[in-house]
Design a protein that fits this description.
single chain; globular; 73 residues; alpha+beta
Amino acid sequence: MGYYTDVKDSFYLGLPNGNVLTLRNPKKDLLNYFHAHSRQIEQYAKENKLSYTEARELAYLVNYANSLGAGKK
């Protein structure tokens, strides 16, 4: 008898102060961190059909958010 284990990807956000934020719920946590521009980020994700749970697409979203200069300092 075989077993199936569903492996969930873990995502992390490196912060300017050197700390690392675990993105347990990538969409919620990312938008919370970049709260000042969360609507712009959501609109960008929608227009470009980007997923918060795909590593490559999440990287695009983080790059866009960083370009807005919206992160907490």
